[in-house]
Design goal:
mainly alpha
Amino acid sequence: MKALLNRLSIATGIGDNAPDEPGARVSYRLERMGPEARQRAEALRRIAIEDFGSAEGADRWLSGTVPFLRQRRPIDLMHTRKGAAAVEHTLFNMRHGIYS
């Protein structure tokens, strides 16, 4: 997993103008993704909503830094297949109590 994270590109091509409020940040990022990336990201958001019990909780997690993702924001990684895979892996690990 570390090798995968090391290869991830953190350049999103979206810019740094995303709003600070978690729900608005997630919406802002999703709107700027291409169709395939948006579909992937929306599917992961649905999983996060299920795991966190609310859209607000999921959006807070998606827009906050995550130690397992090397302090990156999940929403900033989900625009690539590799980034989405890392986010999905992180959600899976959290769901199953794997935190290392």
